[in-house]
Write a structure and sequence with these properties.
CATH superfamily of the largest domain: Glutaredoxin
CATH architecture of the largest domain: 3-Layer(aba) Sandwich
Structural class: alpha+beta
Low-confidence stretches: 1-21, 35-41, 50-62, 296-302
Largest sheet: 6 strands, mixed
Number of helices: 11
Organism: Hibiscus syriacus (Rose of Sharon)
Order of helices and strands: EEHHHHEHHEHEEHHHEEHEEE
Region (Disordered): 203-234, 286-307
Shape: rod-shaped
Oligomer: single chain
CATH topology of the largest domain: Glutaredoxin
Number of strands: 11
GO molecular function: ubiquitin binding
Protein name: C365.01 protein
CATH class of the largest domain: Alpha Beta
Biased composition (Basic and acidic residues): 211-234
């Protein structure tokens, strides 16, 4: 039997990763167009509709049969259904399936009118060893040599005679690597031997390369995901540290404000006001010179100015009621409480029961009327 490997003037030789030479062929643009479509199918997805109806359509209307089904319709109409499994899809789809499965592609260009075709199809292609070997080790794809993609591949690979078979592997860019090609009649044993030798010599290199690329891509994806997780973890740690600092700063400033408020309240209460001094001197003077006491009318006029009654409740349960003028300040109530000298009353603040309101350092300058304590009010002393 005769078979040969031809080199085209339009192709070039390029070493693979293991130093094995192969033929690199640039694919036509019309074939490359199908490569961008996502390929998720397998045998059940690319199985052509079988039966007499398809054969009948092929006989009556060859152009009515879809392009990817024309090859199988032509092959099975004349030679039956015993043949390797040919994927019923475009060339680029079959190449993508082969790459995903880490297998090589077996391509067969069918020339129905060539004199060598009948013996090849009925004897070699339908041989049980050939069928089993191809189905187990290759992704098989076929096309009619004078139609559609088959015509494009025939123009690209330029076979000298038919039947034409080739072992294909994906290459860089829009190219394929032709690892082996067989032209003319060939018997089943010789075909299996050539295919076996091709797998042993070059298939492992391309299979390993494809697996290596996939492992590299997987490793790169894993590294990228690990880096993303590390960055996310670091950002979360920074956010947690920032939140902790903000909470610590807020707690510090709140404590600082409380300390300042206590200090201001302490200073306001410990400063002996001028009015208290005058009142004390007046009481001493009144005791020493009772004849100089103010008249009743003057006392009445002074009492008439006290138009606000404040009931003060202490934590011990003691209550005191005192009259103030509506124009007196909240500070006057603090001074009155301090003047009582009750035990246990140190730092404190005043709180109204209803509605609840705190009268602290910031409110000491308010008048009783503005503070809502006129004409009567009840305050509670809350120790700090």
């Amino acid at each position: 039997m005769s078979w040969k490997i031809r080199a085209s003037v339009r192709t070039r030789r390029q070493p693979s990763c293991n130093g094995i030479f192969c033929r690199i062929v640039c694919l036509p643009r019309c074939i490359i167009g199908g490569f961008s479509r996502a390929i998720m199918g397998r045998r059940n997805q690319f199985q052509p509709p079988a039966g007499p109806q398809l054969q009948h359509q092929q006989l009556l209307h060859p152009a009515a049969v879809p392009e990817d089904q024309a090859f199988l319709a032509c092959l099975e109409h004349k030679y039956g259904t015993r043949h390797p499994f040919f994927y019923c899809c475009s060339f680029m789809q079959a190449l993508k399936i082969a790459e995903d499965d880490h297998k090589l592609m077996f391509m067969y260009l069918h020339s129905p009118e060539h004199p060598f075709t009948p013996s090849f199809c009925s004897t070699t292609l339908s041989s049980e060893p050939v069928v089993q070997f191809l189905d187990a080790n290759f992704i098989s794809w076929g096309a009619i040599a004078d139609r559609g993609e088959g015509l494009q591949m025939a123009a690209t690979l330029q076979p000298a005679t038919f039947p034409f078979c080739a072992v294909i592997a994906p290459a860089a860019g829009n190219s394929i690597a032709v690892l082996q090609q067989m032209e003319g009649p060939i018997d089943p044993a010789e075909l299996v031997e050539i295919l076996q030798r091709t797998i042993e010599e070059q298939g492992s290199a391309f299979g390993t390369s494809a697996r290596g690329r996939e492992e590299e891509n997987s490793s790169a994806r894993n590294n990228e995901e690990e880096m993303m997780r590390a960055r996310a973890k670091e950002e979360e740690k920074l956010r947690a540290d920032r939140r902790l600092r903000e909470e610590q700063d807020a707690a510090y400033f709140a404590a600082l404000r409380r300390d300042q408020e206590k200090e201001e309240l302490r200073k306001a209460r410990t400063q002996k006001p001028l009015e208290v001094c005058n009142q004390t001197n007046y009481e001493k003077l009144r005791q020493m010179h009772p004849e100089k006491q103010p008249s009743k009318s003057r006392q009445n006029s002074s009492a008439q100015g006290k138009d606000t009654q404040i009931l003060i409740r202490f934590p011990s349960g003691v209550s005191r009621e005192q009259s103030f003028s509506s124009t007196d300040k909240i500070l006057s109530i603090y001074r009155y409480i301090d003047s009582l000298g009750l035990p246990g009353i140190g730092n404190y603040r005043l709180i109204s029961s209803f509605p609840k309101r705190v009268y602290s350092v910031d409110q000491m300058g308010m008048t009783l009327k503005d503070a809502g304590l006129y004409p009567r009010a009840s305050l509670f002393v809350e120790l700090l």
